[in-house]
Amino acid sequence: MARLNPDAIRQGDRLALSRALTAVENGDPAGQETLSALFPHTGQSHLVGVTGAPGTGKSTLVNQLARAFRASPHPPKVAIIAVDPTSPFSGGALLGDRIRMQDLAGDKGIFIRSMASRGALGGLAHSTAAFATLLDGAGFDLIFIETVGAGQAEVDIARLAHTVLVVEAPGLGDDIQALKAGILEIADILVVNKADRPDSQNTARALQAMLEMAQGRGSLPPAAKHLRTTKKPAAAAAPEELSTWQPPVRPVTATEGKGIEKLVADIRAHRNYLKETGLWQAKEAYRLQQDLDGLIRDALHRSWQEACDPDQYAAILDQLITRKISPLEALALLI
Ligand SMILES: Nc1nc2c(ncn2[C@@H]2O[C@H](COP(=O)(O)OP(=O)(O)O)[C@@H](O)[C@H]2O)c(=O)[nH]1
Ligand SMILES: [Mg+2]
Is residue 27 packed enough to be buried (19+ CB in 10 Å), middle (13-18) or exposed (0-12)? Predict the structure, then answer.
């Protein structure tokens, strides 16, 4: 592997950026070095997570959003990370994503990258965060992270983002898909795509009703007054618990670009809200703390593993399984 060049990445060298992303994806130490070199220059990008069940139209939507942002008066540089846990190919893309890449390929202000993530070192959320940091360091103002909303991994990835779009579409089953995946509560903006379908109003109404119910129960965020009374952002509290943001339900037809302007306005409004309330910093602090804690856990576990005698471990595990000792007693014997 050629030496990676952080300066070239900062100056917009796309090849250098691609190389660094690949290095990070492969767990190559040179990738880590590049990340560290770029880190002081990061923290500028707006990360927008886009999640939802397969087929809801996320890729189509992100495509339209990228195009709309690029057509605005002071166009941001836009990057798209498509996280596809099912793709076994590094840098591989689904058919829809390949079409998208061709579609947006001529614009130097757009960078698109798929991340195949099976067996990603340190987990999916960790590699996605690393990708976002590299793109941030490369000067992308707006980074879309598209994930298939199917479980905890996607929720973890979405949590990386400042703004989370949960995409729903009618006709994919009777239930609201996001409810099943447990991702409704992390939505900052609820997008009801395929508004050209006759049943889409029912989907929108059902979502609105669910939101109102959740708010009535108080399971959605209470007042953000903590933020105004404390001097520094509470890194320990999950920032979403401090938010008073009311997620809008936004109908769009991604294939026709209908409703996209309003969605762009929603995304900008949420960014401004985060900046004005101090939640932006709180989110950044929370994310970095989570990342550090994860690294510490991994490092401690690794060093324990290196020191651990596998035979002793097997013997203690056996005692645990046969219930001769409790988990806590096993821990005391092992550490
Ligand atoms: N009718 C209709 N179809 C759409 C719309 N947006 C996307 N689709 C279609 O839905 C399918 C899945 O879209 P895709 O963007 O790949 O969904 P993803 O799996 O969520 O990324 C494709 O056939 C799209 O053409 C829309 O607004 N209306
Ligand atoms: Mg997709």
Answer: middle
Ligand of minimum distance to the alpha carbon of 93: 2
- Residue 238 has a pLDDT of 66
CB of 76 closer than 6 A to ligand 1?
no
Identify the CA nearest to 78 among candidates 24, 165, 139.
139
104 alpha carbon – ligand 1 mean position (Å): 17
Give the residue with greater pLDDT, 236 vs 39. Answer: 39
CB atoms within 10 A of CB 148: 21
Pocket test for ligand 1, best of 51, 58, 60, 165 (most atoms within 8 A of CB): 60
pLDDT tops 70 at residue 119: no
Check: CB of residue 34 under 8 Å from CB of residue 229: no
Strands 110-116 and 142-148: unpaired
